[in-house]
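WARN retry 2 of 3 for item q-0093 after timeout on previous attempt; input resubmitted unchanged.
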Amino acid sequence: MTKAIAVIGAGPGGYVAAIRGAQLGAKVFLIENREVGGTCLNRGCIPTKTYYRTAEIMSNFRKASEFGIEAGEFKLDGKKLLERKNKVVSTLVKGIEQLISSYNNIELIRGTASIKDKNTVIVKLFNGDIREIKIDNIVIATGSKPQMTETKGVDQEGVITSDDILEMDKIPETLIVIGGGVIGLEFASIYQELGSKVILLASRILKNIDMEISKRLPIFFKKRGMEVYVDIRAKEIVKEGDKLKVIAKFKNKDEEIEVYGDKVLIASGRSPLVEGLNLEDVGVKYDEIGIHVDKDFMTSVEGIYAIGDVNNVGIQLAHVASAQGVYVMEKIMGLEPDINLDVYPNCVFTFPEVAYVGKTEEQLNKSGIDYKVSKFMFAANGKALTLGESEGFIKVFSTHDGSKILGVTIVGPHANDLIHEGAIAIANGLDVKSIERTIHAHPTLSEAFYEATLGLVGSAIHIAPPKKPRK
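OK item q-0093 returned
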C-alpha cells in the first residue's frame, strides 16, 4: 500500500523532503501558503548572495587601480539591483516548481495547513475553500520568521527586518545594524560595500565560532570603513528629525553611546513559525526554541515529524533542513538513512568570507581531546595574492596522532567554497595522510587547506619550521 505523506512548507526542507519521498514511492501532498522555496530562496540565502555579488563587484571597482585599471566614476542603481534580485529568485522558484511538477506523485497545494490529528490535515485554499487530506505521516517544515528585539522604539518608521531590507530600491546613506549573528554581519558587510555608511552594534560576533575569528572580524570590517561596536546592546531607538538615533550600552562597563542612521536593521535572529498549525490540540510539544523532536526528528506525537528551522535542534541552515528532510523521508519509508547529520559546514558571506565545520579550538579545549592545530596564511598562497585577497587563514585541527581531522576554520577568499574539503574529511573520518596523498592543483586556494593540513604532521612545504630555541 502506498504511503500518503503531508509536507507542510515548501522551503529547502519541505520541497526536498517531498521529492525524496516521491522518489521512494510515497504519495506526497506538499502544502505551501507563500512562495515555493521558502525563506532561503525568497527572502534569505539567494537574495542576499545576489546582493553580495554586486557588493563584491563594487569592492573590486574600488580596488581597480591595484590591478592597473583606471575605472573612473561608478554608482549603484538600487532599482536595477532589486530587479536583478527578483529575476534570480523568480528563475529559481520557477525551476523548483517545474521540478516538483515532474513527479506525478507530488501534489502541490496552495493554502494554509492546520493539523486536525496525526492522520488528517485541513488546508484553507487560496480561493477560500477548505480541503481535508487523509495521510499516514506529517512532516512539518514551516521554517522561521524574523525575530524582533525587545529594544524600546522598534516600532519607529525606518526600523526594518531582513525581509524589509531586501525589498528596498534605495541604498541608505547610513545603516545601523543591530545584531552580530550571521544575518547581521552579512547585511552589514554587503551594505558597506554597496555604499552605505554602516554602524554595527553587536553583543557578540557570531555564535560558537573560533574566538580568533570573533576577534579578527571587527578589525577586517573597520579596515573597510565600517563603524563597529562589540559587547554592546541597543537600549532605545528614537526618531530625531529625518534620522533614527540608537542609544546603546556596553555590557561590561557603565558607558552609553548614541549613533544616528537613516535605517535601523534589526538582525536579532529568527524564531520558529508555528502559528496556525494547531499543535496544542494535537499534542505536539513546542516552545520558543521550536518543536520538540527526537533523534529521528519525530515530535511528541508518533508519525508527525518536524525538520529545519521549526524544530528545536537549533541549526537554522537551509542545507541542514534539506538533509533532515531526506533523512525523515527515508526513515518513514523504511530505510536506514546514511547521512552524517553531525557534520555540516557553516558559511558566512562577509568581506572577507568565513566558514567552519567540525570542532572549534574552544570546543576541543573543553572536551579534553588531545589535539593538534596548524594554520596557513593566505598571504603565502599564490592564487590569493593574484586575486588581491591575501587576508585571512585556514586553520585545521586533528587528533594528536593525525588519525582524524576534527575541525576546520577558514577566513579569507572563497572560504565558503573551500570548506567542503574539510567537511568531506570530517564526515568520513579521514586522517591527515588521506589529504597528504591527494595532489592539489597549483595555483589554487585549495593548496592553503593542503598546506595547513600537512602542517599537522610537519610535512608542509610552504610553512617555515618552528625556530629552535637558542642554547
